[in-house]
Amino acid sequence: MNGENFSLSEKVVSASYIRQGSQARRSHEQLIRRLLEQGKCPEEGWSESTIELFLSELAVMDSNNFLGNCGVGEREGRVASSLVARRHYRLIHGIGRSGDIAAIQPKAAGSSLLNKLTNSVVLDVLKLSGVRSVASCFVVPMATGMSLTLCFLTLRHRRPKARYIVWPRIDQKSCFKAMITAGFEPVVIQNLLEGDELRTDLGAVEQKIQELGPENILCVHSTTSCFAPRVPDRLEELATMCAKYDVPHIVNNAYGVQASKCMHLIQQGARVGRIDAFVQSLDKNFMVPVGGAIIAGFDETFIQEISRMYPGRASASPSLDVLITLLALGASGYKKLLSERKDMYSLLAQELKALASSHGERLLHTPHNPVSLAMSLDALQARGNTALTQLGSMLFTRQVSGARVVPLGAEQTVSGHLFRGFMSHSESYPCPYLNAASAIGITREDVALSIKRLDKCLRSLKKGGGRRPPPPRGSHSRRTTARTEIKSPLST
Q1: Are 344 and 192 in contact (CB under 8 A)?
Q2: Which end of the chain lies in a sparser environment, N or C, as judged by fewer CB atoms within 10 Å?
Q3: 256 and 343 part of one domain
Q4: Contact by Cβ (8 Å): 430, 330
Q5: Which parts of the sequence are marked as the site May act as a substrate filter by repelling compounds with a negatively charged alpha-carboxylate (predicted)?
């Protein structure tokens, strides 16, 4: 209520009680005023009542919620289900206009304000996470792969002759398909094996740029966050190379916001060379539902150019989800989650190393990967690929999600390109292994339970538990199955 209504309320209820209620209301409004003034993530998280009050205030600014609204257009914010309306806090119009996802929507002042504030708060969080010189960003209602595609399509207008994207290999389908979907030809650069780690072959990247000609290359497409034993690309060196040859540089930073090492690499790359844009997922970094990403960069003009490339309006749901989450956590709450994730990484590494040793295996030495770990499975491999397949299945059925068992020699064709050694980021990695990751939100209980269940699975396989019965005499199914498993990647 406004001041006039509070004054009128004093005629109905004791003035002292009304003044107390008015003061409580002002405490909520001061938080909202500070957000509007600063456009930054609040240091301390808001209560749910403050967030709901704020969203309600935004919603009543949209035309579909005007008391006297009379809509005669084709898109008037009508919603058939009241449950759906409540789920979206009655913010129905979405964000942007037909020509620009960042444009103000005349029918929806509240939703437009939500969009602008979300982008401003997210930019602040990217800075506090380590990329201090980032100039601009926006939330896009697409996951990482399609967001990368949008970046590539925007670069097409700047480099109309280009047809290649130079890509240090990472075995993750969406980032590869993003290049294909945009209409470009990925040039796959195999990684170098250094100890246990798979690292960027800088010499091969430069040789390919020279061979193809810089003007024919759309960009270098590098990666920060990845599954061990692959580690983040050498971003500083790649950024320097891109500046030298005047080739754009797009970074896939899918779950890198939560890892200070990844963010430091981006900051340093932009300082010494060229990084045009970096893309990160909302769900992986901020624990919200899948469906959104952040496109960010150091040249505000280019980031605005990408936002204008998005055709049509867009869903406000990803923006709404991440704004609610960051207002609830506050900067201090988010930084606490980042710190806890680092602690859990150390604990997971310690526990996985001990477990590996007890089973005659070892934790692969991948110090440059700040999130993912890998444990060798040589002893299990000695029993054949069937045992590796069984381990992945056993973990999944025992509700250990996210762990990946990577066998030797798997092959996979993605959009017409054959990857040998698929999932291992290498054509010939020397051993099979199991992946585990310490991502934001992981708990001590998650670590303890996963290690306990992995230990039981390994012991069971050692005893022959879960071994498939031999096929009937004269059958060739056993040999055929083994061949199929070598050729096919394990999906867990």
Answers
A1: no
A2: N
A3: no
A4: no
A5: 74
Judge whether 75 is annotated as a binding position: yes
Note whether 134 and 294 are within 8 A (CB). no
Cα separation of 165 and 161, whole Å?
12
316 & 413 share domain: no
Question: Which of the 8 DSSP states describes residue 215?
Answer: G
- Amino acid identity, residue 120? S
For residue 57, tell me if it sits in a domain.
Answer: no
Has 459 been labeled as part of a binding site?
Answer: no
105 is in an annotated binding site: yes
313 belongs to an annotated ligand binding site: yes
User: Is the overall model pTM greater than 0.85, yes or no?
Assistant: yes
Domain that holds residue 363: 334-463
487 has binding-site annotation: no
Let me know: does 125 contact 288? Beta carbons within 8 Å: no
Partners of 221 in beta bridges: 250
Does 479 carry a binding-site annotation?
Answer: no
Identify the residue whose tokens are 């381990």. Answer: 391
Blockwise average pLDDT, block size 10, the chain, 492 residues: 80 84 90 97 97 95 89 85 93 85 89 96 98 98 97 97 98 96 97 98 98 98 97 98 98 97 98 98 97 97 96 93 98 98 98 97 97 96 86 94 92 93 95 97 97 96 63 42 34 32
User: Residue 141, preceding bond cis, omega within 30 degrees?
Assistant: no
Q: What residue type is assigned to position 286 of the chain?
A: F
DSSP per-residue letters across 412-477: EEETTEEEETTTTTSSS-SS-EEEEE--TT--HHHHHHHHHHHHHHHHHHHTTTTPPPPPPTT--H
98 is in an annotated binding site: yes
> Do 346 and 402 belong together in one domain?
yes
